């Protein structure tokens, strides 16, 4: 069903929801879509068995019809995507910084071959095309680094990729089972998956790095008090790499804005510089992963790597 057809039947479904609330239900905006929340939007979900998929999104600013999470890029432009997804997505106590950890425990260990193996599981409630999207993001990281995501056998430490609320990950290896959330309601796209996987490798958001005040201005007056922690500066190991406005780990300029369209992050000294994207790792993102894990000559092409 495409977006046009969904629009034409939405009125019928809204009527059905009165009689069959378990089949079609209205839901409040989820935390992974702050810009939709700011625009007072409502999402209609169609549900079957164990999952619900977004059917129609309506707001005072726009009317958006999507039949699946993968169609988000067709319903929003790039600036909206970078602003509305992945804010507050690090599930980690604020007292710990994965970029600086005792005895490198928060890094995933290398195998004798020099590759870094990160065991993972994927929950059964992802559809095949969603699982393929997740694995393709893993392959994209593997193609440019020595990181290898491997299906868990009996490893104690592993990433459990689950369809739960929002897009979120711990930062670095936390020990045991660590949840990486990729909600089917907006998180299963290539750049978002890469973003969360890179958190799991040990990286914070770019706009929170220790030297950020030289490159961006945080507009605290435009940030709700409850969201201020998402902009707190971290004591990071920057690996002697430059600040990267185009990092896949950078927020968009209106993330968490107290009012629609207000800037929370402004690049300096040139305020017109584009910041934040959820398309693909930047060259500096790749460089940092390779530096942190000392990949060196162990980088191999993904074609020779099988999951």
TrEMBL record:
It holds the Pfam family Astacin. Residues 1-19 form the signal peptide. The active site is at 196. Zn(2+) binds at residues 195, 199, 205. Residues 97-296 form the Peptidase M12A domain. Keywords: Disulfide bond, Hydrolase, Metal-binding, Metalloprotease, Protease, Signal, Zinc, Zymogen. It comes from Cyprinus carpio. This is Metalloendopeptidase. One of its GO terms (biological process) is proteolysis. GO terms for molecular function: metalloendopeptidase activity; zinc ion binding. Its cofactor is Zn(2+). The keyword Disulfide bond applies.
């Amino acid at each position: 069903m495409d977006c046009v057809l969904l629009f034409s039947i939405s009125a019928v479904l809204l009527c059905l929801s009165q009689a069959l609330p378990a089949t079609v239900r209205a839901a409040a905006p989820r935390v992974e879509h702050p810009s939709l929340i700011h625009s007072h939007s409502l999402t209609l979900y169609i549900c079957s068995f164990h999952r619900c998929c977004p059917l129609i999104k309506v707001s005072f600013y726009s009317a958006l019809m999507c039949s699946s999470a993968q169609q988000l890029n067709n319903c929003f432009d790039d600036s909206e995507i970078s602003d509305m997804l992945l804010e507050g997505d690090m599930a980690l106590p604020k007292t710990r910084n994965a970029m600086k950890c005792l005895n490198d425990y928060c890094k995933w260990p290398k195998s004798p071959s020099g590759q870094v193996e990160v065991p993972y599981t994927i929950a059964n409630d992802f559809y095949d095309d969603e699982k393929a999207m997740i694995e393709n993001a893993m392959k994209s990281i593997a193609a440019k680094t020595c990181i290898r995501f491997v299906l868990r056998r009996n490893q104690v430490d592993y990433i459990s990729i689950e369809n739960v609320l929002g897009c979120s990950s711990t930062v670095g290896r936390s020990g045991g089972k660590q949840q990486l959330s990729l909600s089917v309601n907006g998180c299963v796209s290539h750049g978002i998956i890469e973003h969360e996987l890179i958190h799991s490798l040990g990286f914070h958001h770019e706009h929170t790095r220790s030297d950020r005040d030289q490159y961006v201005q945080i507009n605290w007056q435009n940030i709700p008090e409850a969201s201020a922690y998402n902009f707190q500066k971290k004591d990071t190991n920057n690996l002697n790499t430059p600040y990267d406005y185009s990092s896949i780990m950078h927020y968009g300029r209106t993330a968490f804005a107290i009012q629609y369209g207000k800037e929370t992050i402004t690049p300096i000294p040139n305020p017109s510089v584009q910041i934040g994207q959820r398309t693909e790792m930047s060259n500096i993102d790749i460089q940092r992963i390779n530096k942190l894990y000392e990949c060196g000559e162990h980088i191999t092409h993904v074609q020779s790597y099988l999951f």
